[in-house]
Amino acid sequence: MAISPEALAIVRATIRMAHPLGLQTVAEGVETVAQLQLLRELKCYTVQGLLLGRPTDGAGLRRVLEHPVWPISLSDLG
Fold first, then answer.
1. What does the alpha-carbon distance between residue 59 and residue 57 come to, in Å, rounded to a whole number?
2. Is the dihedral of CA 10, 12, 15, 19 positive or negative?
3. CB distance 34 to 14 below 8 Å
4. CA–CA separation, 7 and 22 (whole Å)
5. At a CB cut-off of 8 Å and minimum separation 6, what does 66 contact?
6. Do 49 and 30 meet the contact criterion of CB atoms below 8 Å apart?
7. Which one, 4, 18, 60, 70, has least CB within 10 Å?
8. What's the CA gap between 50 and 14, in Å, rounded?
9. Helix (H) and strand (E) counts for the chain?
10. What is the pLDDT of residue 67?
11. Distance (Å, rounded) from C-alpha 71 to C-alpha 58?
12. What is the DSSP string of 23-51?
């Protein structure tokens, strides 16, 4: 999924405003490695979304915490 120029401008502006204020940005809805790579380039290191995990109930969360398996590795990011 490509990001539109307008959406990219909003993401860049938000991250650029947050950093000087000492605020941490959290990107929501990250679904692809390409999106994650772009966010890392923009210095947004906290993300959530389907790339990292599917929605789950309490039992599912317990399984993930007891036996973590990450769908991507840092080597995927180049």
1. 6
2. negative
3. no
4. 23
5. none
6. yes
7. 4
8. 22
9. 3, 2
10. 83
11. 20
12. PPPEE----SHHHHHHHHHTT--EE-STT
Query: Is pTM, for the whole model, over 0.85?
Result: no
User: From CA 65, how far away is CA 58, in angstroms rounded?
Assistant: 11
Angle at 57 between CA 53 and CA 59, to 5 degrees: 100
Q: Which amino acid is at 77?
A: L
Quote the tokens at residue 73: 């590795």
* Per-residue model confidence as pLDDT tens for the chain (78 residues): 578 999 999 999 999 999 999 999 999 999 998 999 999 999 999 999 998 888 889 998 898 888 877 766 666 665
Please state the length of the chain: 78
φ and ψ at residue 42, rounded to 5 degrees: -85, 5
